[in-house]
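Two proteins were folded this term; both appear here.
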Amino acid sequence: MSSFNLTRRTFVLGAAMTLGLAGCGLKPSLAPGGAAQSLFGRLRARDPENRLEYLFVRRFEERAGLTTSGDLVLTYDLDITRSAQGITSEQITSRYMLSGKATYSVRRAGSEASLAHGSVTAFTGYSATGSTVATQAAQADAAERLATQLADLVVARLTAEATRLQ
């Protein structure tokens, strides 16, 4: 009988918490009409200058919407480093790690005042045990994964700060 009461008590407590949160006025940021929805199609990233920046901007535009005339401008700086991670007994590197940092700032077009800024970090790795061509392909793929991760993190941060950017 006591286990029934515990289960019943848990259910009642859970239902009360659910009802309490339902009436608090919180609204999901990505819901229709949510704060993040107002950003889509308004954010324009500065033009990329190299392949990594192109991959970053491409993913950013996939997530935040493609626009050429948005009233908000995203400026960014990507810093990528490569380090050896796996070294064989013959002193041959068999694995590399790419670490990346994206520093970003959002401002209104024609203004220098920053509305939101910050930085995000990510990392990925690739194997260097195949042929030269395979290693180069693995490195290019890892760079694309890293650019994608960084863009996703920037969009997530901007989504969280969407109310400040309206």
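Next, the second protein.
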Amino acid sequence: MTETWLKKKPIRKSGAVPMYVQVAEILDTEVKSRNGAHFALPSEGELSREFGVSRVTVRQALKQLETRGVIYSEHGRGYFSTSSRMRGVSGFHSFTTEVRKFGGEPGSAIVAYEEKQPLSPAFRKHLQTEGESKPDFIFLRRVRSIDGDPVALEDAYLPMALYPSATRAMFEGASLYAEMTATWGIVPTWTDALFEPAAATAEEAAHLRIELGAPILIVWRVTVTDTDQAVEYVKSVYKGDGFMLNVNRYRL
């Protein structure tokens, strides 16, 4: 980052707007001016000297930006911009469509494709499907990326009966939801989802290019049509600090 923010917009040390809010707004503007670039912010000490404020003030500003989702922190490494970390993307709608809407270039690489697979016990546990029948599924594992940077590892189970004549090539590099609608007339409408924090396994870390044990957010969800027919079971593993949130009947 440049060292000209203080000259561009000095911090007022008296007035109605707290200093940490002023610092946060200047940093926010700088992040947005980078047009989606992913970068590390200067340290608290460097920012303190540059803005002529205390470290406490800088820390308050950074925490405010982190709460907004503008930046994120990594223990022992500092703060980074979140532009390549699903900023503005809900995680429920079409990944491809949402990323493009916010000016990014979506990517999707299939790393596993298998047919006639049972629904994983982990899915049955998290999505409470123990009492349901056990049809065969297409298993699809993809690494989702924004502007070439991997942001999510996604496992999807698709009931085979709903996707006759499906092939791996149909899911290469395209929107899964768009393919569902165009080829099989399936329109995803609702989703039930469960969020939980976790630490990255070796496999997850390798796919997402993060350190083993780094914080991740796991989202378990089942997608249904407007007639409540389940068309997809998904586990998405996202980069970043985690939290747990249960979202019911999210309109797609």
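The chain is about 30% helix and 30% strand. The two ends are 38 Å apart (CA to CA). These notes refer to the second protein only.
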